[in-house]
Amino acid sequence: MSNNTISVTRAENGLRGTITIPGDKSISHRVAILGALAQGSMQVSNYLCSEDCLNTLRAMQQLGAEITPTDVPQNFTLTGTAMHPVAPAKDIDCGNSGTGMRLMAGVLAALPFVSRMYGDPSLSSRPMKRIIDPLEQMGAHISACGQKPGCAPLLIEGGKLNPVHYKLPMASAQVKSAVLLAGMLTEGTCSVHQPAITRDHTERLFAHFGVPCRVSADGLDIEIDGPVVPQAKDIIVPGDISSAAFWIVAASIVPGSEIHLRHVGLNPTRDAIITVLRRMGADITISNEQLEGEPYGDITVRTAQKLQGTTVLKHEIPNLIDEIPVLAIAAAFAEGDTVIRNAAELRVKESDRIATTVGNLRAMGATVQEFEDGLVVTGGAPLHGAVLDSYHDHRIAMGFLMAGLHADGETTLLNCANINTSYPGFEVHLRLLTH
Ligand code: S3P
Question: Which pTM does this prediction carry?
Answer without folding.
Answer: 0.98
